[in-house]
Amino acid sequence: MSGNILIMDDEQNYLLVLDAILTDAGYKVTALSDPEMGLAFLEESEVDVVVTDMKMPKLTGKDVLDRVKKSYPYIPVLIMTAFGSIEAAVEAMRTGAFDYITKPFSNEELLLSLSKAMQYARAQQENRQLRRQIQERFGADNIVGRDKSMRHVLDMVHRAAPSRSTVLVTGESGTGKELIAKAIHNESPRKDGPFVSVNCMALNPGVLESELFGHEKGSFTGAVSRRRGRFELADKGTLFLDEIGELSHDMQVKLLRVLQERRFERVGGTEAVEVDIRIVAATNRDLQKAVADGLFREDLFYRLNVVSIQLPPLRERREDIPFLAAHFLDKFAKENGREMKGFSPSAMDYLSAYEWPGNVRQLENVIERCVVLAGGETIDADDLPPEIKDEDAQFKSAVDLLPTKLDLSETLEKIEAAVIRRALVKADFVQVKAAELLNISKSLLQYKLKKYTISAK
User: Fold this and answer.
1) How many Cα atoms within 13 Å fall on the side-chain side of residue 125?
2) Rounded to 5 degrees, what are φ and ψ at 162?
3) Which domain holds residue 124?
4) Which of 317, 277, 283, 319 is nearest to 300 (CA)?
5) pLDDT tens for each residue of 149-180
6) Predicted model pTM
7) In the predicted model, is pLDDT for residue 435 greater than 70?
8) Longest CA span, the chain
9) CATH number of the domain where residue 265 is located
């Protein structure tokens, strides 16, 4: 096995012996008699495992351990100690040492302990690499959003992420609420901790309580052993509670207590479990209305609504549609081993004009379908699903998205605004052409654009 080993021991003879043994075993060894030099070496060199003696004149092995665990928590530390100092080595194990070996030791004992430490180091490196990849994928800077409303959302993510405050993400289904939650986690000081997600609507209340808080052995039929819940699994990280508006009244009470006290009992248990977590919740419901209707606790709402981030529906961020479509085209082309050049103008016109009741998730599914079924390297209008091109279906989708409790004048105004936006897209945002499509004058169109605060690029 290969790897980089740093050895610190003030006894020169031991340094020479260890250097020879480990070099013969295939390791790259740096042996230093001064622990302060060893710590300086760590700052500028790649080290997989640290091996340090317990008793040294300038710094003890415990001092070295504390410094390494603070600055390089992913590097395992092996403690070497004389037989009479085993208690100190055991204490070091309790505070984070990977293992200890007593002097004099056999070559086999040393190499076995070092092999285990190296395996641990490799696993830590893989985890760090995976976390970096996740952060690159789910960081706010990688979320496609050039529209003004999305730039505001991403600015909120950047500002909220470093804090410990609870965040409530709201928006229609398919707008990317979990993606925003992951971005908050991956830009926070908790990014090296777990990100645990639970859909509150997908589980019935009895199962949900066990999922969130865990259960003790024998607490109910089928509980054959103790099980940790999502709150415990998210300790030192972030817990994402999706569809929070679907919680039953009893679960709202229990969740409120946990948010207030940061402790809970497992189902069937009496022991309090304390956790250090950050909560990000999400819902597609209007929680303020649910509070007014008596369906959601007001005190829980205010506990959750510390930082509120509202995600706009895709139809209100049409500037992003071409960029999102290109992003998904590249993604699914790679996954399916295809060379795709882009979209024809007519296909992009249809995509940009559609109302997208399923939001970004629907757009993603449509592009995946197109990549799989398209006959050529360019997505054309003929490759799009029928509902995207059907004029009546498009109009119906726009009407279906309107709130039910509107008077006729407000409803007609919303429909008029949607038709104007669509005409602008078809006219490539040339106002004269859009006015012709709508059979109105350019001055009337400009009045309508101002009235409905519609951007004409």
Assistant:
1) 13
2) -70, -15
3) 4-133
4) 283
5) 888 998 999 999 999 999 999 999 999 999 99
6) 0.62
7) yes
8) 96
9) 3.40.50.300
